[in-house]
Amino acid sequence: MRRKGTIRPLAQYWALVRRDLVREARGKESVTALFVFAALVLVIFNFAFESAARIDASARAGVLWVALNFAGVLSVSRAFAVELEDDRLRGLLLAPVDRSVLFAAKVTSNLLINLLGGALTFVLLVLFFNLELSWGQAGLGLIVLLGMLGFVAVGTLFAALAANTRARELMLPILLLPIMIPLIIAEVKSTAVILRGGTLASVAGWLQLMAVYDLMFATVGALVFEAAIEE
Question: d(Cα 120, Cα 134) in Å, to the nearest integer?
Fold first, then answer.
């Protein structure tokens, strides 16, 4: 019985993740919206600066995370907007699935979608701002992973809170962005150091801050998601 109880939530988790990813693979709505918005942000900043060669690492890091975070708001919001179509959310809530499992699955699918959009955005950043990358800057991958994990953990929770409101497109960024200020600061600061040629050891404090932030909101989200989604 203990083994059966352990396997069932895992099976439900993977089924929910697969459901979201298959739907995204068919429509490509979230990835497309994320990429287009991020691309527009990069194009605007590219023309705003007189010369890409004069932009320092801090500015490049800021541009990257502005694009990823603001575009990610659209992606996370869309993840719950599609559930409201044809009353899918009600059907999902009636299913015998623990709410913490549903939260974990939503976070995972949102994370994978945002990482894909982030990878495409980073390619544009390299092209527009003449970034010269080396193997020593591979630590950027860990920074992006921690940053995106924290973003989708908080974003999924607040998207659930805003899902049943009339002005959910407006409410989500109002609720989400102030809470993300510590994470955004850590993202930009650590990314700037790595782009200057620093190592992961030199940004260990920022990485620890992001890890604690991720763990805290992942735990809080799992605990209060039921109240948030059924409000």
Answer: 18
Cβ contact 35:64 at 8 Å: no
Find out whether 183 and 68 touch, Cβ atoms under 8 Å. Answer: no
The token duo for 80 is 């719950």
- Give the residue numbers spanning the domain of 107: 2-229
∠ Cα 35 186 213 (to 5°):
95
Q: Please, where are the H alpha helices in 49-180?
A: 57-84, 88-94, 99-128, 140-162, 168-179
pTM equals 0.87
Q: How far apart are CA 44 and CA 68, in angstroms?
A: 14
- Write the CA distances from 10 to 56, 98, 100, 135, 218, integer angstroms: 45, 11, 11, 36, 17
Structurally, the chain folds into a number of domains equal to 1
d(CA 196, CA 198): 6
Angle of CA points 32, 37, 38, to nearest 5° = 100
The secondary structure of residue 130, as a DSSP letter, is T
Q: Which amino acid is at 132?
A: E
Question: pLDDT tens string for the chain (231 positions)?
Answer: 344 444 588 888 898 899 889 988 887 878 888 888 888 888 888 887 765 556 777 888 888 899 899 888 888 887 777 777 767 777 777 778 888 888 999 999 999 999 998 888 888 888 887 777 766 677 888 999 999 999 999 999 988 887 777 776 778 888 888 999 999 999 999 999 998 888 889 999 999 999 999 999 999 999 988 887 776
